[in-house]
């Protein structure tokens, strides 16, 4: 088989852990689809699991499927691995994937994968053409995962990126933007805010005036939002206890405040987690206040659950006597007909 290396981009290798290696492998689809049968393009040698490997791409112009193979270059008779390939479209979105365990036949050790159009898209779908980037290239994200002798992969410790990002909140190290809230300045990291919120992305990277400002005035407590979003973004379901003190109020007040900030900055996951916490705090003394909060920030599921709570007669009789219900009627009078219809009164 002839190797045509000039049609392939040198593989970019990332070591994920001791058992897995991820490679970005780009191929010039426009040029390689005209290769004669038996020709292929290949990556540079790749180090994975103390062995050297090579990825080959073989065009299949008739079927329009995409074929990649993994070949062991090192001399070894006792190596097992799983080869996984994901085709990435021009927008960076995974399209199709395949995975297979390596096998040995004579001197060859490796495996072969075929990427085919998803079911329902039609056999005539040209995967390569649909995913072509500038210059006629297509990109594959390849993973080589080394297995133990019993077929299991080497365990990796859980990610500690949330812990590392959390430490940034306690210092001003590498901060590149600041926010003024009620006359108090909070330092922040532009990249983290941009990654977490599409609203911050538009403000800090777009054409808005804030993109060029080193200090921005906000109406919400950015320090609370930053800390809570980072905590919620990890495996911890509850924000840092310090955030309670920052508000100077109860946990219920904090979650209402935080829900408003999450809604303002389009932090959808944080918003849902706040909804869960608010629902856990629903009782006759708080249901009207939480219902008003749900109505204000368009939390339809929380609103429906609160209305359902009102439909229980003993709950309704007590809840309507609270100050929260009086504020609810004043702020959102249109919700009274909805309550009346649900209760049937």
From TrEMBL:
Gene3D superfamilies named among the record's database cross-references: 1.25.40.420, Apoptosis, Tumor Necrosis Factor Receptor Associated Protein 2, Chain A (2.60.210.10), Potassium Channel Kv1.1, Chain A (3.30.710.10)
Pathway: Protein modification; protein ubiquitination
The protein's name in its UniProt record: BTB domain-containing protein
Stretches assigned to the BTB domain: 175-218
Pfam families with a match to the protein in the record: BACK_BPM_SPOP (PF24570), BTB (PF00651)
Entry similarity comment: Belongs to the Tdpoz family.
Lineage: Eukaryota, Viridiplantae, Streptophyta, Embryophyta, Tracheophyta
């Amino acid at each position: 088989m002839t190797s045509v290396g000039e049609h392939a981009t040198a593989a970019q290798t990332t070591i994920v852990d001791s058992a897995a290696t991820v490679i970005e492998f780009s191929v010039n689809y426009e040029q390689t689809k005209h290769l004669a049968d038996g020709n292929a393009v290949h990556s540079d040698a790749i180090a994975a699991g103390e062995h050297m490997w090579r990825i080959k791409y073989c065009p299949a112009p008739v079927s329009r499927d995409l074929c990649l193979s993994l070949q062991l270059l090192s001399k070894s008779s006792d190596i097992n691995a799983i080869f996984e390939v994901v085709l990435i479209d021009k927008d960076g979105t995974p399209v199709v994937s395949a995975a297979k365990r390596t096998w040995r036949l004579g001197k060859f050790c490796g495996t072969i994968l075929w990427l085919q159009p998803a079911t329902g898209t039609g056999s005539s779908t040209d995967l390569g053409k649909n995913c072509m980037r500038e210059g006629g290239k297509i990109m594959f994200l390849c993973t080589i995962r080394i297995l133990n002798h019993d077929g299991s992969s080497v365990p990796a410790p859980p990610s500690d990126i949330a812990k590392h990002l959390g430490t940034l909140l306690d210092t001003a190290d590498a901060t590149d933007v600041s926010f003024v809230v009620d006359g108090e300045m909070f330092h922040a990291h532009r990249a983290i805010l941009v990654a977490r919120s599409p609203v911050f992305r538009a403000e800090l990277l777009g054409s808005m005036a804030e993109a060029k400002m080193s200090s921005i005035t906000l109406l919400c407590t950015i320090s609370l939002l930053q800390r809570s979003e980072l905590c919620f973004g990890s495996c911890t379901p509850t924000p840092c206890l310090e955030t309670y003190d920052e508000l100077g109020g109860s946990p219920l007040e904090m979650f209402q405040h935080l829900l408003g900030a999450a809604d303002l900055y389009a932090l959808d996951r944080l918003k849902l987690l706040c909804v869960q916490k608010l629902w856990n705090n629903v009782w006759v003394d708080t249901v009207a206040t939480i219902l008003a909060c749900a109505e204000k920030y368009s939390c339809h599921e929380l609103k429906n659950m609160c209305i359902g709570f009102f439909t229980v007669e003993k709950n309704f009789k007590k809840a309507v006597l609270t100050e929260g219900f009086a504020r609810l009627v004043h702020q959102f009078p249109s919700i009274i007909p909805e309550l009346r219809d649900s209760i049937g009164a």
